[in-house]
Amino acid sequence: MQISRSGSVLLTGAVAAALAVTALPAAQAAPSATAVISEVYGGGGNSGATLTRDFVELANAGSASFEVDGLSVQYLPGSPSAGSLWQVSPLSGAIAPGGRYLVAQATGSGGTVALPAPDATGTVAMGAGSGTVALVSGTSPLTCKTAADCAADTRIVDLVGYGSAVVREGSGPVPGASATASVARAASLADTDDNAADLAAGAPTPVNSKGETSGGGQPPEEPGPTEPGDVRIHDIQGTTRVSPLAGAAVTGVPGVVTGVRTSGSRGFWIQETAPDGDPRTSEGLFVYTGSTAPAVKAGDMVLVSGKVAEYYPGSATQSITQITGPRVTVLSSGNALPAPVVLDARSVPGRYVPTADGGSIDPLPLEPKRYALDLYESLEGLRVQIADTRVTGATTKYDEIWVTVKPKENPTRRGGTLYASYEDQNTGRLKVMSLDPAQPVPAANVGDVLKGRTTGVLDYASYGGYNLQATELGTHVDKKLRREVTRQQRKGELAVATYNVENLDAADDQAKFDTLAEGVAKNLSSPDIVSLEEIQDDNGPVNDGTVGSEATLKRFTDAIVAQGGPRYAWRYVAPENNQDGGEPGGNIRNVFLYNPDRVSFVDRPGGDATTPVEAVKTWKGVKLSASPGRINPASPAWESSRKPLVGEFVFRGRSVFVIGTHFGSKGGDQPLHGRFQEPTRSSETKRVQQATEVNTFVTSLLKADKSARVVALGDFNDFEFSPTFTALTEGRVLKPLITTLPASERYSYVYDGNSQTLDHILTSPAIRRLDYDVVHINAEFADQASDHDPQVVRIKVSGRKAR
């Protein structure tokens, strides 16, 4: 290993040669941990077809969300000629664990049934009987036209050839595609890189990211009833979370339309005008119309016939009770809407949800006066109203905002709601979205207020749980939240900071570089050392074997200088290609920036992607076997995850050991609002293992020199009260500094309206004099460069001089 003049790690010789060779990132068997092409249909709109357009469906068999921003779906004719070109359909967004993602293609003149709302749309007229579809990292057209050439193109994530396609995976393409048949992967999503073995022909079954399928809400074959039937909405909703009539056909269910949703999961809500008086049974209900826009409006008195269904938007979520395949009779229009139920600090219970010892709470009788989630379930589909609510989660890119109806519930210093423990859930949080395109959710920050009444229908979604679909929004009051600026370190203080820069790579817009750089130079006051998380390789998601980050770091450090900061040098250890998790092809890693005018880096060769760094005891104290190095990178704890970066620095003649971390994500955990209570935190197992590895390494440093100054910092993806931190601090070798702050300031991240801490700085016992600060510049704001707030500790370094 050698160090470049700019300060980054360069790999040489056999290591560099090995990293230059990359294999096709084809989907793996049993099943793939990333996205695969789950279904391909090119017969849409053809003669004899039912569906009106072609489609490609993707699926995610993994336990973590799969980001598709920057990826594309590409199509090549089955028998390409010299002039044939791959046709590109760019993608955006993400595929939830276990979820689907629908890419609509060209529309034909035949067919009668529309696709469900697509997640992406292309214009490719695919062949009904033959063709090749590829999922590609990047949006540049592929150039390969043979199976062998495409197998060598590392940008291809997955590939399906059908009919007589020349380009395919395995011994042959999938047979049987036609105007009425798609080719689809088995339900297990297993991928053995043999198209003919992994996929089979059958009736097309497109599913989008919301779980919607085609054909819902088609025009009725016969008129609906004109008189109410025997079943009422409260009969359908019942006294538990699951309808006692699930799967049954119902006729003439009466209600007044209270809200209409014309995009996404289309449909409308109806509400009973003669309630039964039982607080457990909701008098509201969603009518799902599928791909067809509802032909009703608020105030219509209707009779609805159809099938009662429980829709689970995610594998561990609660369900939405609804009527599907509806036939609707409008009896009258312009009717007054029922008075909304008021949700406030008095009406929402302080306890969150009953327990089922980890099992499903679906069959438990609702207790709306005792548990907040039971109350919300008893109001599912009903008109509700909140007033003068404080914003606890800033407006997202999906036009959602989190508020609390309990202003005194665990307030933070800057207006949020603190997530303090697994046992102390915040019951007053609700997500607000707008049903009226003419009245969008305002761009609001944490601490702002929705003044006056916000009224709408209470719904449930996989992300965030219960939410208010607003038909009337309160007035946005800007409370002028400001980004913080920490003080500058003094001459005798070493300032060490951590900052998750959210998948930064050289292809990002200059505006992102500039905003992040301003955060370092101005808001953090130019720390001496900055441990960065989520620096990607230089071409980001392009999956071509690139692992270096020189161009990315050059742009970032140049931007810091332009913002008035110092000229930082950097150190990192490049990962093995596609071995550290994150966005496929992105190769995210931890990086140290340091100001050479204030602090020096001790370079010791030998650290690479696979060699563990060790503590070496000397007669003068402890030193690292390699600097920079990685902690036990071959350990199963780091499989498909970032390995901690360790470096030895010298400040004013004294050694400081810095450990930059980025633990495994919380992807795959059951949601707080789900049907399994208490929820299983399956991702925690790996983080506890990772914490144990870091603890073991720090222990080895302190065993060699109990006065060693160690700073461990980064995105630990867990809370200070979690088992991860029990393992991390075992033996009191490290102290989490977040616990030194007042409770109302212990957060660096906002999720679902909860202010919480995933980022941390911890120090060894020898560091006694310090000043610690979480610098709030991102997480509470609608306009943010990253979803994490940075942190900084200023250390008075004293003790034995360095070697």
List keywords for this structure.
803 residues, mainly beta, seven-stranded mixed sheet, six-stranded mixed sheet, 31% strand, globular, disordered N terminus
What's the gist of this structure?
This protein has 803 residues and is mainly β. The protein starts with a strand and ends in a 7-residue tail after the last strand.
Roughly how many Å apart are the termini? 22 Å
Strand content: 25-35%
User: Largest sheet at a glance?
Assistant: 7 strands, mixed
Rg, nearest Å = 28 Å
Rough outline: globular
Q: Structural class per helix/strand content?
A: mainly beta
Number of strands: 43
SS field, number of helical segments: 9
Uncertain spans: 1-32, 216-221
Mean pLDDT: 90
| Share of helix, binned | 10-25%
Layout of secondary structure:
Layout: E1 2-3, E2 9-10, H1 13-20, E3 35-41, E4 53-60, E5 66-67, E6 71-77, E7 87-90, E8 94-95, E9 100-107, E10 120-121, E11 131-137, H2 147-151, E12 156-162, E13 182-185, H3 195-198, E14 199-202, H4 233-237, E15 249-261, E16 266-271, E17 284-290, E18 301-311, E19 320-332, E20 341-342, H5 372-378, E21 383-393, E22 401-404, E23 429-434, E24 449-461, E25 465-472, E26 475-477, E27 493-504, H6 510-523, E28 529-535, H7 550-562, E29 569-571, E30 589-594, E31 600-602, E32 615-618, E33 621-624, E34 629-630, E35 645-651, E36 654-662, H8 684-704, E37 710-715, H9 723-728, E38 735-736, E39 749-751, E40 754-756, E41 759-763, E42 770-774, E43 791-796
Parallel strand pairs: 9-10, 17-19, 20-21, 23-25, 27-28, 36-37
Antiparallel strand pairs: 1-2, 3-4, 3-13, 4-9, 5-8, 6-7, 6-11, 11-12, 13-14, 15-16, 15-18, 16-17, 18-19, 21-22, 21-24, 22-23, 24-25, 24-26, 27-43, 28-30, 29-30, 31-35, 32-33, 34-35, 35-36, 37-41, 38-41, 39-40, 42-43
Helix pairs in contact: 6-7
